């Protein structure tokens, strides 16, 4: 039985080395990347027994994705199909004032046809927790229904449900996203959202604390975690609000920082630690991720503890 099961699309990430422009690149780095598999890998490396479930094309690229996820720290339980294709995205890294750019090539991806009937749902009902994100229902009408069905299934089995709003403006408009996301909220125990997404997509006002309190009051979440970028994060839990600043980090690759945060949080939260402990651990994992290329936080528990124990001079003692 897994402590944590996640469901969603994992793509092939293709990016020029360094900050080279795509139009001039002569080579591309090849990685696997997806919010839900990232969280499974991150939490798996930090002590949880994790499984990522999905649907992939029975192809070299599909097998590469699965092998990469498993090599990095999570079990993969995949439905193989002869239809559809492997989704990809191109990432062009940049520094201010040039923004990092993402180009999706995921139309007709095999995962967009996944239904509960073909997925290994017993994994979900036997797990301690089930995680997915707002990316998944944005990909197709079928996945909108499947996401809702899987969350309801998990709730009925007393599996803790965790959901990250994870809004992607290249996938849908706020007016499309809001009713879909809010239809899922009754079946969610732990909600994670960036404060900007709460404002842009959910129409909430005020600072992060007000956003967390309003979400908890309206939807009855067990826990609400609100991230604020450089201002850190906070969580609402059982009427209390816990603040957590960021740990300083030299940023090599910021992509996947949010997934690192969620994976770190769940690695402690699902093992019975308090929300303040889980939140601090999450911030440390997120800081470490920013120093690592790729979408996953390939770190060890000792490295996370090193960040937590580091003195003001930046030396682990």
From TrEMBL:
Superkingdom of this protein's organism: Archaea
Domain (Carbohydrate kinase PfkB) ranges: 1-297
Gene3D superfamilies in the record: 3.40.1190.20
GO molecular function annotations of the record: kinase activity
SUPFAM superfamilies on file: Ribokinase-like
UniProt keyword annotations, A-Z: Kinase, Transferase
Family statement: Belongs to the carbohydrate kinase PfkB family.
Protein name: Bifunctional 2-dehydro-3-deoxygluconokinase/2-dehydro-3-deoxygalactonoki nase
Organism: Halarchaeum salinum
Lineage: Archaea, Methanobacteriati, Methanobacteriota, Stenosarchaea group, Halobacteria
Gene (name only): kdgK1
């Amino acid at each position: 039985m897994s402590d944590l099961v996640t469901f969603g699309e994992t793509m092939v990430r293709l990016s020029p080395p360094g900050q080279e422009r795509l139009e001039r690149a002569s080579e591309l780095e090849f990685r696997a990347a997806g919010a839900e598999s990232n969280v499974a890998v991150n939490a798996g490396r930090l002590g949880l027994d994790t499984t990522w479930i999905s649907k992939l094309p029975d192809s070299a690229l599909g097998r590469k994705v699965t092998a990469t996820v498993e090599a990095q720290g999570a079990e993969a339980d995949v439905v193989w199909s002869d239809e559809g294709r492997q989704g990809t995205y191109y990432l062009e890294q940049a520094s201010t004032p040039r923004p990092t750019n993402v180009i999706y090539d995921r139309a007709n991806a095999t995962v967009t046809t996944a239904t509960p009937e073909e997925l290994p749902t017993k994994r979900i009902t036997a797990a301690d927790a089930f995680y997915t994100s707002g990316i998944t229902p944005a990909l197709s009408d079928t996945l909108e229904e499947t996401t809702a069905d899987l969350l309801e299934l998990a709730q009925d089995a007393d599996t803790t449900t965790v959901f990250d709003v994870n809004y992607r403006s290249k996938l849908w408009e706020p007016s499309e996203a809001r009713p879909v996301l809010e239809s899922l909220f009754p079946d969610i125990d732990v909600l994670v959202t960036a404060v900007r997404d709460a404002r842009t997509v959910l129409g909430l006002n005020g600072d992060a604390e007000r956003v967390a309190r309003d979400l908890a009051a309206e939807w009855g979440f067990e826990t609400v975690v609100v991230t604020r970028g450089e201002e850190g994060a906070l969580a609402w839990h059982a009427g209390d609000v816990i603040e957590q600043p960021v740990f300083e980090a030299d940023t090599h690759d910021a992509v996947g920082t949010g997934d690192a945060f969620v994976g770190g949080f769940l690695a402690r939260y699902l093992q019975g630690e308090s929300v303040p402990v889980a939140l601090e651990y999450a911030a440390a994992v997120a800081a470490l991720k920013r120093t690592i290329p790729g979408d996953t936080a390939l770190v060890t528990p000792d490295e996370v503890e090193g960040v937590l124990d580091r003195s003001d001079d930046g030396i682990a003692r």
